[in-house]
Structure prediction request, 342 residues.
Amino acid sequence: MNRRKALAVAGAVAVAGAGALVARRAWRARGAPPVPPGVPLGPFGKDSTAEEVTAGLDLTGKVALVTGVSSGLGAETLRVLTLRGAHVLGTARTREKAAQACAAAGARATPLALELTDFDSVAACADQVRRLGMPLDLLICNAGVMALPQLEQVYGIEKHFVTNHLGHFVLVHRLLDSVLAAREGRVVVVSSRGYIWAPPGGIEFDNLSGTRGEYDANRAYGQSKLANGLFSLELARRLRGTTATSNSVHPGIIRTNLGRHFSPWKKQLGEWIGWTFMKSIPAGAATQCYVGTYPPLAGVSGHYFMNCNPAVPGGHMEDEELAARLWDVSVELTRAYLPPLA
Ligand SMILES: NC(=O)c1ccc[n+]([C@@H]2O[C@H](COP(=O)([O-])OP(=O)(O)OC[C@H]3O[C@@H](n4cnc5c(N)ncnc54)[C@H](OP(=O)(O)O)[C@@H]3O)[C@@H](O)[C@H]2O)c1
Prediction:
């Protein structure tokens, strides 16, 4: 790169960094996002860490299942929940990866294999959990993929949708009895603000294969994350009158392995200006730990949280009809793997 080019790149980075800072300040000046009525606000915020939001809690005797503990937010969630005394069933794509991830927690963590794109693996994982005979106080659907560079399909369906939504849909169905057996079972579905990239109609039920039109990785991810939120919403409706709850969360923007498929320029941009808006991994894991354990949230269900507080997501994320339709379609797509009468 010659000197002129280098100066131009440095200038562009400086402008982008300054722009990001200004945008962040403006967002802050606009104040906190609207909050749903009746949901308690917590004392924590954007920079709170998973350790901070669980400080003082004794989770001894509680059992949590966390998917995707081999990396990023799942690994931190496993670490902090076990630190507070919970027993964590930690899943990863292979038993070896799960064992490696659980090793530091010693007897407080049980490794399990779970490959979300293989519904036989999901069923086997759930059966193993059921055989342990432990009520599940907490089920955190955390594992996920983003930005797959090309259209990939599993069971003829676009892969983000299968991994992020359908795999967890089957897992939760097969473990719902265990969640209901807990005194106050909580399902936490890790969604994303990226749901706003979903197609204009929300979920393209007539294009779940992803073959119509040009493949757009953000759109596919956005649709799957919208599906996460809608699944939690409809699950909460179906759990009304029980002791169990379901909520979804946006963890923030955090540099984890989730960006492994990003283009080199996007990764580089993240290195340069990410500090202006990104959270640390301990802060990224905070909202799911908070929603899963904070005592005043007992009985709170059907909500969306970000920055360790409830928020009104708006748009399709609140569309109850869409949520009900997604449920029915997801049942059709996974029927062979669901318990009877799902
Ligand atoms: N990081 C962010 O900025 C951000 C923002 C919004 C939402 N989220 C959400 O946060 C959650 C955690 O992401 P992260 O940032 O911690 O990413 P990460 O570091 O890439 O961790 C993702 C985890 O999911 C596992 N996983 C991926 N595909 C799987 C599959 N087919 N079956 C089973 N497990 C699978 C990964 O296992 P391997 O390592 O073996 O692939 C890994 O353990 C995701 O649901 C993501 O959508 C993250």
